[in-house]
Structure formats: structure tokens, C-alpha cells
Amino acid sequence: MRIITADETGLVKVVRLESGECLAVSAGEQARANAVRAVCFDHAAPAASRHRASDDFFARIHVARAAGAVETWDVSQSERDGQTGGCALSARGTAVECAAAPVALACLPPASSSSSESSRVLTCNGEGEVQVSRAAPDGRSNDEAERTTLSIRGPVSAAVADGDGGSGLALAAGGKENDLKTWDLGTGKCTWKAKNVPHDFLDMRQPVWITSLCPLAAATGGGGGLQQMVAGTAHRQVRLYDARAQKRPTHSVDADEHGVTTMAVAPDGREVVVADTAGLVRVLDLRKMKWGRRFEGPAGSVRGLAFHPTLPVLACVGLDRMARVYGYHSREQKFQVYLKQRLNAVLFDGEEGEVQVAADGEDGEKKKSGAKDGAGAGEDWSGSEGWGSGEEYEMDEADSSEEEEEEEEEEDSRRRTATTQVSVRANGGKPSVGEEDSGGESSEEESVDDEVDARAGSEGGSSSDDDESEESEEEAKPPPTKRRQVQRTTASAKKPSRR
């Protein structure tokens, strides 16, 4: 299994997760000006780029850099000496010149069904400058006549686009004190504008700062465009919008204590994974609007989330320089790779195959059997647990985790009680130092126990007789409550009279 990562120094890497090996690294100077802000696949690439059906295949990606350029790269792989270890990143040149510091990048299908036409690349920067250009197949820049520019209201922190071959192009964007809006890029008009939530209990206006957007129709593959969306804010809210129902959010829930940085909707469209600036990655059930399982590991702001197209696997990258891959339903961390630079984006390259659990003695490392390996070797993720199985996964893991914690607490209390009993018997009925109580009661109990021990030792019996005598004495002793009452009465009788 391979992933494609991009970092803030401008490097694009192809990493094999099983071995942690970096198969290919993009060429170029490492600089902040060349930082990669977004990465996406080219929808006009051949079908062989998504399925390993031949010996040679490639995936075409677009890379948006902070300096204001969108580059096209081919990720190719070929079998060498019977092994699938060859990989290369080949640059096709600058496909689009765009505004500096883009915050959104989208690759849209061609306007017509003709296979000769290339896809369209949309970029949007923080000031609201939107540009739609046709990606040249040879990597050369396009003419000005093939570009469409539009200026929308800024500032813009997040934007998503939607459009198919027969309909117009729509854009949804929002930012700091700039609530969610949708635009028709064909006419340049605002088609829908969201309304802020009501004032709080102090009758104060709620601040607006949208930092992440995800359309629900794109995840499920259905129609509807940008009518249903999920928005994350810097004020730790996750809001669900339905343009067909109302302008205000239909549902709104609070996340943890930190702002939302990025989100990813599951391919089945029922859940959304939300990440924040502190490394918390959690699942939100969109049907119940309740928080579910959590993915442990990230130790910093999460900048990129990606789902595998066919397997229930989630990739996560961020400022901690680690690329992590989790089993989506099990929450188990399958792979972890250190990549040296702070990462901004991640993609699965679509390589198919089976993933099997390593044998004992391999330090728990997960390995992947190639397309030619046996179908029954290891854990098969492409079976009933895939996205296309139609099986519903209810979010009961949170409840089960609470029950497990309660059981662990009960077991710990039983262990402590058993340990206390053993220590008391080992000390001849005398409690240990940590278990003694302060006051006169403990001293009186110790004197009584010492007298019993001395009396038992003077008899000079065997060890078995001593054990039997100790057990009989313990049975003859009154209950703890009655003993405390007698001891308190004796202590009070010993106190001198104030008169």
C-alpha cells in the first residue's frame, strides 16, 4: 500500500507503508515559497492509473504551490525482476498559473464527454480570487482564452467545487467573518447564502470562521451538488447545512477545546472524520450527530485526511511529521512513517491488494501481499468490510469502551482487596504501614494482636498448628464494627476526668 504526501518545503513523496521506504521524491528546491498547499488527482487520467491491471500504470496528480502555480506530476510504477518495487515521479510542467497562496484546489471533469479534452483545474486563494483553467495534457501553460476568473467576497479559508460535464460549475466558500456561500461560476452570481446561528444565552452574536468544508453528495457519488455540506469552524463547531431546507445550519455540535483544521467524509456518507489543531481525530455520526471513536497518535495540528477508495482505511498527516494509517472501523494504527518535514496533504494512490498481519517476531509490522499472492493469506480488507459491502456500522464502540473501563476498575479493586488480605495474614493479622489508621484505635489493635502472637509462640506448636490457631482466632473475633465500638469505649474510659 502506498501513499502520496506533500509538505511545507515543497517536496512530494511516494511512500510504501509496509517498509516505510520513500520510493520517490520530487525534484526541486526546498523553500517556503514552494510549499504545497493542496494535492488532488486528475480525473482525466486513464483508467489504468487507478487499477493495477497491467505491468505499467501511473496516476496523475496536480500540486498547488504557495508561490502561485499548479504543477502536474505522473506517479508511475513498473515491475522489475518480478518485483513491484519500481516507482518514479515525473513532472509534466506547470499546468496552471494561479493566484498566490491558494487555499483550495479541485480537478473537475471535462465540460464535454470527449475523451480528447483535458480536465479543468480550479483554484481559489485567501482573497477570493477564483480561477478555472484547462489543464494542458503536455504540461504547458494554457492560453488566457481558456481561463475563467471570478472574484468572490473574501477572506476565504476553505472552498470546495462541484461540477459535471453537462451542468454548470458551482463553488462553496467561507472564511473569517465570511459565512458560507455558494456561487455559480458560469454567471458569477451568489446562489445561496447561509445565515448565522441565533445569539447565545447572553444575547451576543456568535463569531463565524469557517476553516473546512466537505460536500456530502461528492462522498456518496450521488447528485445534489453543493446542497448538503459539512463545515468545521475555528471556534470548535461542526455544522451541517442543507440548502434545500433552510439557510441556518440544520445541526450544530461542539467539538473539543480546539478549532477544526480539516475533515473527511466517509465514502458511505454516514460519518465524517474531524481533526483539530491539537491532534484530536474523532468520528461524528451524521445520522445521530453524536461523537464516536477516536484515533490515537497525532501530536500536533492535523493538516490532511484521506480515505482509501475501496478499503476501510484512513490516512492522517500533520505538523508532527508522521504519516499514520488506521483501520477505520477498528481504530487500530496499521502503519506509521516518519517523513522529516511537516506535512500538509496526503492521498492514497489507489494501489489495490490484500493486507496481512505480520507473524510474531516481526514487531507487529503490517505487510501487503501483492496481486499475485494467495487470496487467503492474512487479513483481507477488500471483502465484507469494504465500502461497497452495504453493511452498516453502528457506533457502539464508545459504549463498549466505557463498559471495559468499568470492568477494569472493578478488577483493580478486587486485586487491591486480595493483596491487602494476603499482607495482613503474612504479618500475623497486623496491617501494613500504609494500611494503618492514625489514632489510639490502631495502637490498641496492635497490642491485642501482639499478645495473641506471643501466646501462640509460647505454645511452640508446628506451623500447621499456628495456621489453624490463627484461623480459629480470626473466626472468634467479633465483626469489625463491634470491635471498633468496644475499643472506643475502652479508650474513652481511660481518658482522665476534667474535674
Describe this structure in words.
One of its GO terms (cellular component) is nucleolus. Residues 372-384 have a biased composition (Low complexity). One of its GO terms (biological process) is ribosomal large subunit biogenesis. Residues 129-154, 357-499 are annotated as: Disordered. Residues 391-411, 434-452, 464-474 have a biased composition (Acidic residues). The protein has helices at residues 216-220, 397-426, 440-459, 463-476, 480-494; strands at 2-7, 12-16, 21-25, 36-41, 57-65, 69-80, 83-97, 102-108, 120-125, 129-134, 147-151, 158-162, 170-175, 178-184, 189-193, 210-215, 228-233, 237-242, 251-254, 260-265, 271-276, 281-285, 290-295, 302-307, 313-318, 322-327, 333-338, 343-348, 354-357, 366-369. The protein is of the alpha+beta class and 499 residues long. The protein is built from 5 helices and 30 strands. It has a 4-stranded antiparallel β-sheet, with no helix packed on it. The protein folds into 2 domains: 2-354 and 380-386, 7 Propeller (Methylamine Dehydrogenase, Chain H); 402-433 and 442-490, no CATH class.
